[in-house]
Design a protein that fits this description.
By secondary structure, this protein is an alpha/beta fold. It contains 21 helices and 16 strands. It has an eleven-stranded mixed β-sheet. It has a five-stranded parallel β-sheet with strand order 6-5-4-7-8, sandwiched between helices. Strand 1 and strand 2 form a beta hairpin. The two termini are about 40 Å apart.
């Protein structure tokens, strides 16, 4: 029988079943917190095998619920952000726990300390398979100021050094948009924090509850995980429950604030007095307004086309319902190809098949953006794709700077800058000061510009106050790479929560990361080779213009669930046809 319980759709919250689930977790919390690492390894290996068996059913359910044409390459999105992402994280945790089981920590080559004192840890690629399957993509984790290279180990896997840890019950309020987020958040609480977990699915994707229980069956059977359904009333009951010790939410700042402060005039008073309604720890990942900074350079017509596909992917992937989606495009005002680049974006937004806006409220948010901009360009669909150009960077109440569209709305603002250095300075200041949220930022830079303006680019990457920074690769890659960190830039508070509080994922179990910086090739293979960049990465399978994404992503997900050389030729054959 399934342990998926509770549904308050049209009825009172089923408190009896919810209480039973919490009671079962409480009864096993001390057992889990003391469980030997090799037992956890065995459970993770079983979960990875289960994922290989259940992956197709998971993806089929997601495709049906999001109303994606099952023959469309966009099915690939559900493989990438479903089974692939989860399998990759399980692999990363297996590596770390294997090291811990043998009494050591994972080791890193090439750790450096920047002039400003921040320690930079190269985390990807780690293996020959990493170098082959995501050729040319690298990632490094920057630690928070005060963490020195010599004491890096003291800021990793701290739970595993606790002498007498106490069993705790964590409530995870699951995300409804990306279907690997709930199980990823569960694994982080279980493995990194040593807590048993009650996962409450979002009503948007609770169709996956049974599949997730099947994948994570070892944890369910042993009493360390329970999965429940329910809407806002169930969530309200659970966050206030005296037997829940900690809460984690992936969602909106408004939902977070309702949990922490309540609603209405009383909430405003509590916030003023610094007396939250919720008196237990809460961590969060809450999205924001994602920028794409286009750095001026000698872009060819082919570069403009390819990077337009890149930007449109950052916007339209998952129908725009990603917390790290691109929303504000920053172009150099004096850059001659500016108009041609916008025309490429228009062409793609018009040409790509329309998508169903599966996430509630997309139409409301899109209409609010259009109402604020008389010149908005609409491109059809049940909620029209929307491009808004020429925004005033000085506008104090610009909707697109302060409100996350969470749908297919892209806005453009042109910034001054007579040269690359001054433009980058203006762009970074604009992002840090004017745009809501700190989850992910993107920079698109021509290789020649990268060489000629290396110091300015390094300063821009260092100064961007975002939890993930992507240079020529979508910052969302930090979500896909288990070894990267995921979460807002540190410094948000309960009163001003921004994109959230706390790191919500990283397989090396860093306690004090500041951000992940990922880099990728400016061009895909084979054009990369023709320009002297020896990356083998074809058009990535997460691109919305990739013709074989559904085949490639399915094969990579299968590989991640059962790594081995025999799958590699098929992956390459499919990828090269994308």
């Amino acid at each position: 029988g399934s342990s998926t319980v509770g549904s308050d759709t049209g009825s009172a919250v089923d408190r009896t079943n919810l209480d039973r689930a919490i009671g079962e977790l409480r009864a096993h919390a001390d057992e889990w917190v003391r469980l030997a690492v090799d037992r956890k390894l065995a459970m993770l290996l079983t979960a990875r095998r289960n994922l290989g068996r259940c992956g197709r059913r998971w993806v089929d359910a997601s495709v049906a619920a999001k109303r994606i044409d099952p023959r469309s390459p966009w099915v690939g999105e559900e493989w990438v952000t479903g089974p692939w992402a989860l399998a990759a994280t399980i692999d990363g945790l297996l590596d770390t726990l294997s090291a811990l089981a043998s009494g050591r920590l994972p080791e890193f080559k090439g750790v450096t300390t920047r002039d400003d004192g921040r320690v930079v840890v190269p985390v990807f690629p780690r293996t020959v398979f990493d170098r082959l399957l995501l050729s040319g993509i690298t990632a490094e984790v920057w630690m928070q100021p005060g963490v020195g290279a010599a004491e890096l180990g003291e800021h990793m896997a701290s739970f595993y050094r606790e002498r007498e840890p106490r069993g705790r019950v964590a409530l995870v309020l699951g995300a409804g948009n990306v279907n690997s987020i709930p199980p990823l958040d569960v694994l982080y609480r279980l493995i990194a924090r040593g807590q048993v977990v009650l996962l409450k699915m979002s009503p948007v994707n609770d169709y996956l509850a049974g599949a997730l229980e099947e994948v994570l069956e070892p944890f369910v059977t042993a009493g360390f995980l329970r999965v429940v359904r329910g809407g806002a009333e169930a969530g309200e009951y659970l966050v206030r429950h005296e037997a829940i010790d900690e809460v984690h939410i992936t969602g909106s700042a408004a939902t977070h604030d309702a949990i922490v402060w309540g609603v209405g005039e009383e909430a405003a008073g509590r916030r003023r007095n610094g007396k939250p309604l919720l008196e237990k720890p809460i961590s969060s990942e809450l999205g924001g307004v994602g920028p794409v900074i286009v750095v001026p350079g000698p872009w060819s017509a082919s570069d403009l086309r390819y990077q337009a596909e890149h930007v449109v992917t950052m916007k339209l992937h998952n129908a725009g319902c990603n917390c790290v989606a691109a929303q504000v495009l920053l172009l150099p005002r004096e850059w001659p190809p500016r108009g041609a680049f916008l025309d490429e974006l228009r062409r793609l937004m018009a040409a790509l098949p329309s998508r169903v806006a599966f996430y509630p409220g997309a139409g409301v948010r899109q209409r609010a953006a259009v109402a604020a901009h008389t010149g908005a360009e609409l491109f059809g669909g049940d909620v029209p794709r929307t491009l808004i150009t020429g925004l005033d960077p000085e506008a104090t109440h610009e909707y697109c700077f302060s409100s996350e569209a969470f749908g297919e709305v892209l806005a453009e603002v042109s910034l001054p800058g007579a040269d690359t250095t001054s433009f980058l300075g203006n762009a970074v200041a604009f992002c840090n000061r004017r745009l809501a949220g700190t989850l992910g930022a993107n920079l698109l830079v021509h290789p020649r510009t990268m060489r000629e303006a290396a110091a300015a680019l390094d300063r821009a990457v260092a100064d961007l106050e975002y939890g993930a920074v992507g240079v020529n690769v979508w910052a969302a890659i930090a979500f896909l790479l288990a070894q990267a960190t995921w979460g807002a830039y540190p410094g948000h508070t309960l009163e001003d929560v921004g994109s959230g509080i706390g790191v919500v994922r990283n397989s090396f179990l860093f306690d004090s990361p500041q951000k992940t910086v990922a880099r990728g090739p400016f061009r895909s293979f084979p054009r990369s080779f023709m320009h002297g960049d020896f990356s083998l990465l074809p058009k990535p399978p997460w691109f919305v213009t990739n013709r074989t994404a559904h085949c490639t992503a399915r094969r990579v997900a299968a590989f991640a669930s059962d790594p081995g050389w025999r799958q590699v030729p098929g992956i390459f054959w499919s990828a090269l046809r994308g």
